[in-house]
Amino acid sequence: MDPEYDAYIDAALSLNNLILTPDVRLEVAKQFALLAGMKATLEHEPIPADEEPANIYRL
Amino acid sequence: MNTLPFTATECVDAFSRGDCSAIEIAEATLARIEQTNPALNAFIEITAQRARREADHLDRLKHQGQPLGALAAVPYAVKNLFDVSGITTLAGAKLYATQPPASQDAYLIQRLNRAGGLLAGTLNMDAYAYGFTTENTHYGATHNPRDTARSAGGSSGGTGAAVAAGLVPMGLASDTNGSIRVPASLCGVFGLKPTFGRLSRTGTQTFVSSLDHLGPLAATTQDLALAYDALQGADPLDPVCAPRDIEPTRGKLDQGINGLRIARLTGYFDAHAGNEARWAAQTAARALQAIDEIELPGVAAARAAAYLITAAESGALYLDNLREHIELFEPLSRDRLIAGSLIPAAWYQQALRYRRWYLDRVLSLFQQYDVLIAPATPITAPLLGQSTFTIGDREFATRPNMGLLTQPLSFIGLPVAVAPLWPNTHLPIGVQIIAPPWREDLCLRVAHALEEVGLANTRIQRG
User: Fold this and answer.
1) Chain A residues touching chain B at CB-CB below 8 Å
2) Are B302 and B412 in contact (CB under 8 A)?
3) What is the nearest CA distance from B242 to chain A, expressed in angstroms?
4) Mean of all residue pLDDT scores within chain B
5) What are phi and psi of B395, to 5 degrees?
6) pLDDT range class, residue A45, cuts 50, 70, 90
7) Contact B121, B34 (CB under 8 A)
8) Residues of B identified as active-site
9) So what's the pLDDT on residue A58?
10) How confident is the model at residue A59 (pLDDT cuts 50, 70, 90)?
């Protein structure tokens, strides 16, 4: 796990008042690493910074 | 019992002609469920009294010469994230077990009820709809009727199994990232995930608001279209439901595929498909005379964006409960939900931005093609408890990755039907039939064409 994310996870858990056992904390870190991998995959595609986000939308 | 109708279309016809009563159909359905469900764990609650009451009502209407609905005397069941009056909406979660019963039916159940459907019960699912295998720690796994050692897919595994086992000819489910299409593929039934915003979500448990769709699974394409036509209708109480007129599809099924420009998706879709999945897509494409093969742009990023949106929205949805009742959570999903609740807003925003960009590019392909074909799942039904599967030399965790091929399509809300093919004697696999927004009719026409040539079928045993 990237130490940068490790510190972030601890800070975010604290901010969200989520108190976890060490085992669960470890599993959450693994899941967060997966999400960070997804973010990296997403960043492979160049998206203009001014692209309008599509949130709740009607096609 | 064997002489009674089974498919939804047969039920409507037989009841309308007077060949049998609605109560006879209801009793035969309940007997099938009682006999078979213990081996499958598809049903969580059987609404026998309600089915009998609805059947009695229909029989009285018919006796009085009153008009009958399009689904008169058709048994069906629903994933247990739909509100059913008098029953607690579980969404597969122990977290909700102590909630009061729903005070009224979900909008789509009301529509089926008005059309004459007979509600037989509520169906098992992955907790919160987060998963693709219907392995549920608190309510048990649902077993695939084709091989009970295998998964029925998820998260709507109960619906897939109930239809595939012939317990009901149609069922309702939800699909956020593939939860209609994965069970349809692994159980070998037809399924339809309509366009995002087509069907009302009022009275159902949210999972990921900006990705959740509802739709039917069924024994035949006629049944699928019959169900879908009955479900359509604008709902002002659902802000996502588009104010569109009902666009009937059943009468268009026989229009065939002449004139349709159909292409098979390659690239990412081939790279994440095992041998059976590639066989299914290639075989369907040949039968449809779809010679062209094309690649969608940026599919891997689309899947990644769907994954992030799912994690962020579901994590936020369950954050309060994670804080206060973490012991009640499904262990198979808990850690994913917590991790999702920690996602920085910038990641989520980038995923939403990408959705617009990707949608525009995929829509431009529909200027050249009317329908696209792709496999629905990477592999046939995995064993229950199987933690990984392999494609080529890459290993994937089973539970989050059975939707590898479905997520990039629901991400942008396209309508997709699944038709089941049979690469070997006992395990089916589905093909996705993808159309532009609001063209569910094209999805169903192509699925029907595959059924008509004998390639797609559900091999459901009657009685």
Assistant:
1) 8-9, 12-13, 16-18, 20, 24, 27-32, 34-35, 38-39, 41-45, 47-48, 51-59
2) yes
3) 7
4) 97
5) -105, 135
6) confident
7) no
8) 79, 155, 179
9) 56
10) low
How many CB atoms sit inside 10 A of residue B236's CB? 9
B137: left (phi over 0), alpha (psi -120 to 50) or beta: alpha
pLDDT of residue A57 exceeding 90, the answer is: no
Go through chain B and tell me how many residues it has: 463
CB atoms near residue B404 (< 10 Å): 26
Length of chain A: 59
CA distance linking residue B373 with residue B281, whole number of Å = 7
Query: What pLDDT is attached to residue B206?
Result: 97
Distance CA B76, CA B74 (A): 6
Distance CA B283, CA B397 (A): 27
Residues 6+ apart with CB under 8 A from B332: B126, B127, B131, B135, B137, B399
Q: Tell me the mean pLDDT in the region B362-382.
A: 97
Q: What is the CA radius of gyration of chain B?
A: 20
The span from the CA of B122 to the CA of B43, in Å, is 6
Q: Quickly list DSSP for B129-159.
A: G--SS---TTT-PPEETTEEEEE--SSSHHH
Spell out the alpha helix ranges (H) of B157-234. 157-164, 181-187, 221-231
**How near does any CA of chain A get to the CA of B50, in Å?**
36
Measured over the CA atoms of residue B336, residue B141, residue B271 and residue B212, the dihedral's sign is negative
Residue at B213: amino acid letter:
H
CA distances from B48 to B28, B37, B53, B83 (A): 11, 14, 9, 17
Q: Could you tell me which of B247, B113, B240, B127 has the C-alpha nearest to residue B179?
A: B127
Which structure tokens are listed for B255?
């229009």
- Span B98-109, mean pLDDT? 98
Which amino acid, residue B450? L
In the predicted structure, residue B174 carries a pLDDT above the cut 90? yes
